[in-house]
Specification:
The chain is mostly beta strands. Helices cover 0% and strands 45% of the residues. The protein has a six-stranded antiparallel β-sheet with strand order 1-6-2-3-4-5, with no helix packed on it. This is DUF551 domain-containing protein. Pfam families: DUF551.
Length: 67
């Protein structure tokens, strides 16, 4: 996994959207690191509660697309 950073080695500066990888489910998606909750949040439920995960790796998102 080149470009990927182990969560155990370093966490992203908050607030920042990053791509995360969860080894247990083999999923990857965009999330942001919530320092207060000590988790990566990727969604909110209908009551406004954050839905998070404990990924093993993360990496910065690539550049935004050009028009």
């Amino acid at each position: 996994m080149s470009d990927w950073i182990k969560v155990s080695d370093s966490l992203p500066e908050s607030p920042a959207d990053v791509q995360v990888y969860c080894a247990d489910t083999k999923e990857q998606f965009v999330a942001f690191h919530d320092k207060a909750r000590k988790q990566f949040t990727y969604a909110m439920d209908h009551e406004g509660n954050s839905i998070g995960c404990l990924p093993t790796h993360w990496k910065p998102l690539g550049p935004n697309p050009e028009q």
